[in-house]
Design brief:
One of its GO terms (molecular function) is phosphatidylinositol phosphate binding. InterPro entries: cDENN_dom (IPR001194), dDENN_dom (IPR005112), DENN_C (IPR043153), DENND1A/B/C (IPR040032), Tripartite_DENN (IPR037516). It is found in: Cytoplasmic vesicle, Clathrin-coated vesicle. Its main location: cytoplasm. This protein has 441 residues and is α/β, with parallel strands linked by helices. The protein is 35% helix and 17% strand. The protein is built from 14 helices and eleven strands. It has a six-stranded mixed beta sheet. Strand 2 and strand 3 (63-69) form a beta hairpin. It starts with 5 loop residues before the first strand and ends in an 8-residue tail after the last helix.
Length: 441
């Protein structure tokens, strides 16, 4: 069967190093991304496992020089992602550079996240070039903490590296829940790692950014592709963080390995990440997905967006109100020149969801959601999109959690402040419009 042509929105052929993967259906995430971060237990270790790996630069078998594990044996998975034998599972052209860092994430059967952070060092031993890797497995999303710490420690190999690094981690890493910026799109995941990376990659591609946001709001299937695995994972988390105060309720795998490439054909909404080297040998599986009009691929390195021929190719075509699109583009453009670009970038996207959801602040905590009242309190230009949005699982889960949480839930503080400001502004504008005219005598 002939597959539909791929529409290139930027006038170039699809990138030769892009990749697509989809996983088989999984149970919806009833608590969203926020609850998939395990809270730290009192006295818990800062990490699950720590490995020092080594292999020849040109390939060969990876050896475990030292290891420490406080939980399951992570060796096979860490080697597969951090320093695979013969480079096969990262593509024949993938080689870690000296000082490179890696970040990726795994999900367990309960969809809880575990993170892998690694740093690479190149050594010249005799006539061989050797790659060493210090890899840490942890439940904590220390996007800003762990890479810097591992880079610092990688050049100071002690006699017993695992023991010394374990001790330094225990004293260097805050054992409490990470807090992050008070207005972070994804609270409790460190200081802007994901949002900052997404801003760096796509900050100048507002059309692509707003398409991604609207595609997630309308529960589509997204594949993100990047050359670097750490960039891919951070951007995947940055993408789902754009939904705040919503939370992605469907399949989410920020990085897929060679072992699960064959999980193509997902029948439910999904957000996947795939390092581009794997696409070189799996392009046919990727292209087959363009038979589905709900499928879209984004190259994070170029900002290019690819959809099936005839499918919706912009946020406006997906139904996001034109006024919101124009305002968001202006805000994103201004964020690039801000003294705090990460904050301004996140706030520009937060204004989109606040514009859509602000009237929910007028519904009593603990009450059943009143869709008619919500729509009546929303601008007329928003109502068509909101009616469509209200039928999604993402929307239903949000309103149920939000109204049940009341004002005590700190997760919604940033949204509540922004929504209250917007509602007050709308009220002032209505008051001005309704002022009696001064008719001269």
């Amino acid at each position: 069967m002939r597959m539909p042509a791929v529409l290139n929105l930027f006038g170039r052929s699809p990138p030769a190093a892009v990749s697509a993967v989809t996983a088989k259906s999984a149970s919806p995430m009833k608590q969203g991304i926020h609850s998939r971060l395990l809270p730290p237990e009192s006295g818990a270790s800062a990490f699950e496992a720590l490995y020092r790996l080594r292999r020849r630069l040109c390939g060969g078998q990876t050896s475990v020089v030292a290891a420490s594990s406080t939980a399951d044996d992570w060796r096979l998975r860490v080697v597969e992602y951090a320093l695979p034998d013969c480079c096969d599972s990262r593509g024949s052209d993938w080689q870690p550079e000296d000082g490179d860092t890696l970040c990726t994430a795994f999900t367990d059967i309960n969809s809880r996240f575990t993170f892998l952070f690694a740093v690479f060092t190149r050594l010249h031993v005799g006539e061989d070039y050797i790659v060493e890797c210090l890899a840490l497995v942890t439940r904590r999303p220390g996007f800003d903490i762990f890479p810097a710490l591992l880079r610092q420690l990688s050049g100071q190999w002690p006699v017993d590296p695992v023991l010394a690094i374990s001790q330094q981690l225990a004293t260097s890493v805050t054992m409490g829940q990470p807090t992050g910026h008070r207005d972070s799109q994804l609270p409790d995941t460190g200081q802007w790692g994901p949002a900052r990376e997404l801003s760096d990659r796509l900050g100048r591609c507002s059309d692509t950014l707003l398409y991604l946001l609207t595609a997630m709001l309308t529960e589509r299937k997204l594949l993100l592709v990047a050359r670097r695995l750490d960039r891919l994972t951070l951007c995947a988390f940055g993408c789902v963080s754009m939904l705040y105060p919503f939370s992605w309720e469907h399949v989410f795998a920020p990085s897929l390995s060679a072992a699960n490439i064959d999980h193509i054909g997902c029948l439910v909404p999904c957000v996947f990440g795939l390092v581009e080297a794997l696409y070189v040998t799996n392009r046919a599986k990727v292209d087959a997905n363009f038979a589905d009009r709900d499928f879209a691929l984004v190259n994070l390195d170029s900002g290019d967006l690819f959809v099936a021929d005839g499918a919706e190719a912009s946020a406006e075509q997906l139904g996001l109100p034109k006024r919101l699109v124009r305002a968001a583009k202006r805000s994103l453009s201004r964020s690039r020149s801000s003294s705090a670009p990460g904050d301004a970038f996140s706030q520009a996207l937060l204004r989109v969801t606040v514009e859509l959801l602000a009237p929910i602040r007028q519904q009593p905590a603990g009450s059943d959601f009143n869709l008619d009242a919500f729509l009546a309190a929303s601008p007329e230009s928003h109502r068509a999109f909101l009616r469509r949005l209200s039928g999604s699982q993402l929307f239903r889960e949000f309103v149920d959690r939000y109204l049940a949480a009341g004002t005590s839930e700190s997760h919604y503080e940033a949204f509540n402040r922004a929504a209250d400001r917007l509602l007050a502004s709308r009220q002032r504008k209505r008051a001005i419009v309704n002022l009696p005219r001064n008719i001269g005598r």
